[in-house]
Amino acid sequence: MKVSVVVCTYNAPELLDLVFYGMSRQSHSPDEMFVADDGSTDDTRRLIASWAERLSFPVDHVWHVDHGYRKTRIVNEAVRRSSGDHLIFLDGDTIPHSRWVEDHALAADGLRVLCGRRVRLGPEITSQITREWVLEGRLESLWGPVPRSWLRRDTKRFLLGIRLAAGLARMFHPRARKLMGVNFSLPKAVFEAVNGYDESYSRAWREDYDLDLRLQRAGYPYYALLNRAIVYHLDHPQREFSPEIEAIHGEHERASDVRCAIGLDAPFDPNE
Fold it and tell me: Which CATH code, of 3.40.50.1000, 3.90.550.10, 3.10.129.10, 3.40.50.10420, is assigned to 3-254?
């Protein structure tokens, strides 16, 4: 099985650099990695080019001009370029555990949607993290800075950062969970069957919720990857949703579509 990783980013090269350090120490390297870039400046381009020369697997920078929030469009293009059988998605402000790819790959069965979660690092520890911390695996240590941050009530959901054997994790988390865009994976054929992300969601956010709804309508099985496929989400201000955006979400909840109208089959021009 060939695995493709898709990482989303926008004008946050310092955070993306930490993500790359996390990817550089994976126990199971992906077959390819795509950085779906929603219109970042040259700082991000130079960073990706530098890492592409250092990693053992190919890295493709997928970019389009900045016309506002259009994550759905650029992620769809990254998927079009991918050749993997299984797609693993990660946000560009989220550092993967060294066995993140391995855990997704081991759980993949050609049909299931694998739903991971995140350790939510607090603002204090986020400001302290260095590349050395990532390279030395300090975020993964049960006696390291993350549990200390949790005890200070800075970091949240630290317990999800304790990696368990697959059978034990399944015992603690037997029920399916909803998809979170920060950390999930699925067969490429499944993503294609629902026509990928809905590009009409470009400025509405919560596009992952819409994808989740359509995958559930299509009847694909979900599998929880809690205490496995661990990621560490760096702190940043959260978006607020307007009444207009919430109204759009309501329309999508009441819909019955499985395939979105504007998705993977839409044309793509990086300059538009």
Answer: 3.90.550.10
